[in-house]
Specification:
Length: 399
């Protein structure tokens, strides 16, 4: 049997044992939801990567159980034990918790940052590196309140960034665990595995993969990848000198002008992933009666609105302009829900719940890098698990 203040999973019998508490925690049984889920998750690890229970792989084993135990707590939605990134916070421990994923070192023993000696630390303490990574990947940096408890996503390299949301982070971790990790995977290997998993799930040039790399760098494992959201500008065309021959007239790009930018012809010219283009009276159009209503679900969701074969002018300084109204239930400056402007698959601008506005605001995006080209324009919305953000788009033009 386990000590009174412990619990464990036994792979020999596929069973779990739980202590009944002691005077140190008011004799509270060690059976809270996150702890029970933690022990069950050891069985998941045994059935997938089979991470050895020693060295850095042992820390990853323990971190995996904390990650999935935490996700079960969020999924349960129990108002008496709301989801947070504290482990064992309901066990009446003198410090108020057993471990903290946002700040592992707060318990006085766990590692928040990787060091070369991480493999010689008790696996319950070296797990802090993986826990800290997961918290930052999910929630990003900065102070916030989650489940009624204070969290603070500090980093080992003083970086700041937003998270990808806990559901995406958990999906990345599970795919890495079940597809790419092995029994001897260490933290460097876990970084490689999660980056590949993020590429599988969200794309090799996705913000999700980039932010996963940022989270690893923030716990001193590897370096961050280049930001795929910053397109490489096209080389500028040199100004002809007086001795240069007179340039030939510029050939207009093939393709069409952007059509139905105010949506007054309904869906004509546009491809939408859902019923985005609407004349619903629940929101106001920027002008006329029709507009694009993106997101606002208050749960994990993605949407896209696109138009292809658009001819970008070959003279002057071509720009995309549109009017955007953003309303949100979120608070603070962290970007939980986003609307990206993509041209030929590259993100040129990103707007978020942090850009909330009381009315429509005109936005301008430089298209000089695509001068004279035929392009696909896409508005791509992403919303995380909790609280809604609505992006209203109208009066889109390229010229």
């Amino acid at each position: 049997m386990p000590p009174p203040l412990n619990a464990f999973y036994d792979d020999d019998c596929f069973c779990m044992f739980f202590g009944d508490g002691s005077s140190q925690n008011s004799n509270t049984p060690v059976t809270t939801l996150d702890v029970a889920s933690h022990e069950m998750s050891h069985g998941v690890t045994a059935a997938t990567a089979g991470l050895n229970y020693s060295g850095e792989s042992g820390g990853l084993n323990e971190a995996t159980s904390d990650i999935f135990g935490t996700m079960v707590e969020f999924y349960a939605g129990n108002t008496g034990d709301p989801g947070d990134y504290y482990i064992g916070e309901k066990l009446n421990m003198s410090g108020g918790f057993m471990r903290r994923m946002d700040n592992p070192a707060a318990d006085g023993n766990s590692l928040s940052c990787w060091t070369s000696g991480a493999g010689s630390v008790d696996v319950h303490y070296s797990s802090g590196i993986g826990n800290h990574f997961f918290y930052l990947a999910a929630e990003g940096t900065g102070a916030k309140t989650i489940g009624g408890r204070s969290h603070n996503g500090t980093t080992c390299n003083n970086d700041t960034f937003s998270g990808i949301g806990k559901d995406k982070a958990a999906a990345v971790w599970y795919r890495a665990l079940s597809t790419y990790m092995t029994s001897t995977t260490n933290y460097a290997g876990a970084r490689t595995a999660t980056l590949q998993a993020a590429a599988d799930l969200y794309g090799a040039n996705s913000q999700e993969r980039y932010l996963v790399s940022k989270a690893w760098a923030a716990v001193s494992v590897g370096t961050a990848l280049p930001d795929p959201g910053t397109p490489t500008p096209s080389p500028s065309t040199p100004t002809p000198s007086p001795t240069d021959p007179t340039p030939s007239p510029t050939t207009p790009p093939s393709g069409n002008a952007l059509t139905n930018g105010s949506f007054e012809q309904g869906t004509s010219g546009w491809t939408q992933s859902d019923n985005i283009i609407t004349n619903s009276s629940l929101q106001a159009a920027g002008d006329g009666s029709w507009y694009a209503w993106m997101m606002g679900y208050g749960t994990d969701a993605v949407e896209s609105l696109s138009q292809s074969n658009i001819a970008v002018p070959s003279t002057g300084t071509p720009k995309l302009t549109f009017w955007l109204k953003t309303t949100t239930q979120e608070s603070g400056s962290t970007a939980y829900d986003t609307l990206k402007v993509n041209v030929n698959g590259s993100t040129l601008a990103t707007y978020s719940n942090a850009n909330a506005s009381s009315g429509y605001v005109q936005k301008t995006v430089d298209l000089s890098a695509y001068k004279g080209q035929t392009v696909k324009l896409e508005f791509a919305g992403t919303e995380d698990t909790y609280l809604s953000t609505i992006f209203l788009v109208d009066q889109i033009a390229i010229g």
